Amino acid sequence: xxxxxxxxxxxxxxxxxxxxxxxxxxxxxxxxxxxxxxxxxxxxxxxxxxxxxxxxxxxxxxxxxxxxxxxxxxxxxx
Length: 78
Description:
The protein is mainly beta. It contains one helix and seven strands, in the order ββββββαβ.
């Protein structure tokens, strides 16, 4: 879905330091911009409004945080 010009808005766990983590107790929205798969993992580029900047995280930090913390929606970026 990212290839045809869509982005995903998600709500993963975030630590007190503002890092996305499975151990994060805070929920805050992020914009998923790119996924680079490598084997069973990879990298994810996001826009993080917590710090108003782009960031890169290991794939497992975003997608292994549990279903309830990863609910989101696809949006058109036209």
